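Protein folds are increasingly written down as discrete tokens. With that in mind, we are printing a sequence and the tokens encoding its fold.
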Amino acid sequence: MTAAGSEQGGRGSDGQIIDLHVHYYTHAYLDAVESAPSTRVYRREHDGRFVCSWRSGIALTVPQPHPGVAQRLELMDQSGIETQVLSIPSPSTYFLDPPAADTLSRQVNEELAALCRQYPGRFEALAALPMHDTDRALDALDHALDDLEMAGVMILTNIDGVPLDDERFETFWSAADEKALLVYVHPTVPDAGHLDDYALAIGVGFLADTNLALARLAYSGVFERYPRIRWVFSHLGGTLPFMLPRLDNYYRQFPECREKAPRTPTEYIKGLTFDTASSHRPAIRCAVDTLGLDRLVFGSDYPHVPGGVGPFIEALTDVTGGQDGDELMSGRARRLLSGERI
């Protein structure tokens, strides 16, 4: 679906916003998360949030009641958001065995695509895929793109503990490159210990896993081998803007970092796209200075952060002073959703 690229959707010059980082949980999805033997779910006492632990820590928290279409449209109209791009983040469908994950992925994708058809221009969607079975993932990808006309895919920073540069995913990256696929990478629980206490998996581990995924994709040559993939990474790239010089430093120091990558991590990373899902002004300034304002697209992580989308819009406007506003808030997103490279 490319309604966000039409006159109805994402009119940046009219002050409208396309929010690329938005989550929507179908009843079937939450039921599957709650009933799976690999997950542990409880409702938080003080606010009723649906909290899911998976592998080594908290993988998901969902506000309750989960905002439905009417509530979203009201918020969007109040906030100047023309289009929400819906997705399922961590734990995606990786918490199920591949056949069940395939079934759930297709069910979620069909429900999200139906919302997009029902409200053209207001919603777009990114597909969930059973990435831990590459053949099934490729079949589900074709269904999502060809039959459901979805805009791209959301994958996680590791696939049930397996890094994205593992050789088992080469056939997927090759197909994604051939299709010039929009691949949105969202963090999840790292393959690490000591994260189950104090909500550290979601509080710290998510951002660390984004950094790790970016570093591995750069050093392993995935970015080099598959240059047509249109990558978007969440949350300003984790803490990547703060540590990017370290990746270049060790690229020069360690020969193994250069064996598959003829260019420095910075050279690859400055060709990627990052969403602005942060309201912390110093972090946004660091991302603008390090990654470049022209590599950022608006995202809010709605509905996860208390306070709605307003603080994200305000923080971004404060830092940028409105510079590049049309492109930042809608233009680049509109082109990505319509299949273009930015």
Notes: The chain has twelve helices and 13 strands.
